[in-house]
Design a protein that fits this description.
alpha+beta, Dna Ligase, domain 1, five-stranded antiparallel sheet, 37% helix, 17% strand, binds 2'-deoxycytidine-5'-triphosphate, binds magnesium ion, nucleus, DNA repair
Length: 625
Amino acid sequence: MEYGEERVVALVDMDCFYVQVEQRLNPALRNTPCVVAQYKTWKGGGIIAVSYEARDHGVTRNMWVDDAKNLCQDLQVARVRELHGKADLTHYREASVEVIEVMSRFAVIERASIDEAYMDLTAAVQQRLKDMSVNRIDPSLLKTTYIQGYPQSSSESRGLHQWLASLTPSSLGEQSSAGLQLTVGAFIVEEMRAAVEEQTGFRCSAGISHNKVLAKLACGLNKPNRQTILPLASVTELFNSLPIGKIRNLGGKLGSSITETLGVENMGDLTRFSQAQLELHFGDKTGRWLYDLCRGIEFEAVKPRQLPKSIGCSKNFPGKTSLATKEEVQFWLHQLALELEERLTKDRDVNGRVAKSLTVGVRQLGDKRPSSFSRCCALVRYEATKISSDSFAIIKSLNTAGNQQAAWTPPLTLLHISASKFSDAPSSGGITGFLSTETSLSQSRFSTSQLSNKSSLDAKSVSPCKQQHGTIQSFFQKATERPTIQKDGEEEVSVGGKASPAPKSASESHSGLNPNPPSGASEDLLTCDRCSQEVLAWEMPEHNDYHFAMDLQKSFSSSSSSSAATTSCNISSSSSPPPLRGGVTGSAQSSRVKTKIRGQSGPAAKKLRSQGGSASTLDSFFKKN
Ligand code: DCP
Ligand code: MG
């Protein structure tokens, strides 16, 4: 076996996933040009998923529904549901679990996002080869398989016959060839995809190759409802015209820095550089990694993981809707906590695990970064009131208005909370057992008053939560990696400060021949096709909302600033119930919350308008990327 061809790795990615979920819920949408959109006040809402029939009309993700309808009059539109004033992804998340369950019957899988999973099929292929009695491969077992680099002149050909012919009879012997192994991997993936469709009704595509990078690339080559084998021998030709940013992990800053530093565009261009040159520019580990990668060779392991490492939710408050009072901050923390409690409880019941760490993140109005601060503390129990009051306690020192004031300064444009650091739920005693454990007892000593009295827990005076600059998932670095503050030698309260000034360099995050992706450990991430940022799947609606709001701002840039401000306000408030002012306390139940609808005028709004409102926030957000 040649270097780099040792394994068979596949990536399976659902086709237009959210659309398929909506089509299953409403069969009238099947086989139609159809999109899933979020929010609807402005131009019919922003599109986040597109059926292949709609793609044929030129409809793409990130278009406004009204614009898409100009391209396709019959366009059907399904809406993302809303709960607690924000996008509710429950249907999609649950559909994802169904799919993952079916896939897991075939191989050990690594869930990579809400609709894709990697699998290492090497062992399964070896087993299958041992059991194979026939000396010939039956093409009917590879009905939807394409072979990259082999002639695909007609739908009949798919390169398959030439490919099968190239697998010499001797390769069916003891030492099976890399090509044969990929072919047997493709059998397994055909079976897996058929099972997924049969059990869930959802169709998917797949890439089969020797590593994660090639499998991911291959998967996108013949979508939808098809799978592609990418042999190492076909990589040179493919990479010669493949922009560096199209490669997994090179869509972001590392990819841009390679392009700028070396003055090259395509992946294949990198083969002109010696290993020493690449090491010189990018450090030993990354240099070596790139030297192999541009030849299609990569060794990152498929890590068995089916469950997300963190569970959380977030909400944007752009422009005039930014949270400018303590009551609003408390109200929205509580709304997020309600969702978190519900999802954590379900997760505990279904997956038998409990989270021990709670992270709260905020972005302040005018901040150039996607996130300003994140702080964490022990997650004591799965109860919204407790979660929201603890969350408030660990961020309240960020409020410079002072304890006696009703105001929150600077106003917040993003709030999010998440739970992580999972461990097995105690088998007996359920939640009672969980609460009576030693850790929980010590954690429960953490109190909001202790924290608020500790002026030393000022954002600037404590260690950062190892936040990677510029990525939303950086809020959710493993809690164990964070510097923590030991209080009175008994409890562990980890409080993050200002985001660290620079991202981990690629070379720092790589080790040996098996480097982690430069962006950190893979989570349930989606790559934003607009800014290449990797974003947690559940964070995506809020992230998309940014882009939609930014588009809106752009579309109004030629109009008067006052009309832009009004429209930004409309879209923001359309995406969420009005924030509340009034008698909310940290421990208040939502039913006791006194409500007062925040108007579109008033001091805060005036102040924001004078600062440019959402425009300045969104501008600064995007300047960063
Ligand atoms: N998603 C989102 N916002 C984005 C990207 C994705 O909300 N910017 C959601 C909707 C998608 C789902 O995640 O349906 C999966 O993302 P994919 O990138 O895999 O896109 P699709 O599955 O929709 O289409 P494809 O067939 O191209 O994979
Ligand atoms: Mg998909």
